[in-house]
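Researcher: Please translate sequence to structure tokens.
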Amino acid sequence: MKAQNNIGYACTGRQCKTGNSNKKAFRFIKADNTTSDISFADLEKETNQFANLLKGLGFQEGDVFVTFLPKCREQIVAFLGSLKNRNISGTLFANFGDEAVLDRLKDARARGIITKKNIYKKLTSVWGELTELRYIILIDLDEHLDDRVLSYVKLLSACGPDFTIPDTEPDTPSVLHYTSGSTAKPKGVLHVHNSLIMQTDTTKKILQLREDDIFWCTADPGWVTGTSYGIIGPCSLGVSQICYEGGMNVKKWFEILEQEQVTVWYTAPTALRMIMQESTIDFNKYDLSKLRSIFSVGEPLNPEILHWSRTVLKRDIYDTYFQTETGAIMVSNRPGYAIKPGSMGVPVDKIKCEIMDDEGNMLPYNKPGNLCIKAPWESMFITYLNKQQVYQEKFKSGFYYTGDQAYRTEDGYYWFIGRIDDIINTAGHLVSPFEVESAILEMEQIIDVAVIAAPDPILFEKVVAYVKLKSDLPSTNDLYLQIRLYVSKKLSPMCAPAEIIIVDKIPKNKSGKIMRRYLRALYEGKDPGDISTIDQ
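Model: Translation complete:
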């Protein structure tokens, strides 16, 4: 048997064989504060049962099975159990709308899906168009509705606790994620079981998890961070994890950090900005003495967040960079390396990055260009599902073009500028939305901001800033002038917003990325397309 290549086995069976059977794998915390634990032995048993469940329903190797659930025990069991049966395990955010679900399930040709009753109704209106979808399994249903809508509890109780994992070669397809859609229509990104090597390695060397750690990754499993580092990496190392099933609540989050004695925390800059904005909480009252490290992911870490954390939490925040396509962290700050505020950090072991032009030529230090990664690496995606030509276009001269623009300094640190199609070309000057946003966020009147390019008859493109102000703060011409002057002074006059629009909320997707596509369409009066990925 070659089960050592199987992600599901590495996260459960291997842990039991190495003495972690009785160790807590996850503590699940509900919004009402009730908790429940699952040991690695329990996880092994229940994922085996789920693999047997799928096998009994006739699921074959390579069939796509999708989880459509919020963070919960059943989501993790189904994800790992389907991998044991050598199915392709796809994940969807629980609050996707009908159109988003239809697009993804249809593109994936999903054969089965697991969800709950209050989400199931989203599927009923589109099921007729999903000709490949055979089964819907509901986790909160006591009895089968019919021969296609089935009860998870009833099915699982009839399945045995032992499962023989078929031989799993490293290149066997494993996890399917869809890109965020922040700059283009979502594409199905397919990975293989070999990704386990890099996910485990970066969890150990970048996040620096140890066997006695309590780890909390706040990412939803609908996002690659939520599977690579909210399930696979830590489980493969036998690390105990926290899974909070409620929504974002600053007070609750800090209670969890204190009560659960979290040692390593992995979250997003968006969440950290929300925490920074909370003026009613005395963060000093929380005992965070066990918290060794904080990491961020999903969008660039603004320098002011790092400064705030150093001042208030007395800790550094280590920014990490990777994509759905890369499967694991590629460039990162981490303990042991000096942090340069605003920098992405340096490439991880075994990863070679370059800054290149569109023709595949390497660019010198400090010159912006395409951020490219030397192919292959263990966690590299193998295709865009049903879009092989698009996949091939992402590679040139042996390098993967990430679609991000950055530059590298002589000390080996990389600096993120933005997505290629986010860069603002104003009068021939390239302006990074991230840099402008970081500058504006330093102003005490500003809570959140998003910067986009808008067409301009003279400048070609102008800088437009959508700004969320502190509550009860009026918007005035003086404030607009202050913002422009501050950015001009901080960056350059070319970076100053030509237009400032006050909004109640900045639209972002589940991974915390600003939905610039939506804002550009809104500004230009165009149809924004699918907006179900916006975090409501």
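Researcher: Any highlights?
Model: The chain has a mean pLDDT of 92.
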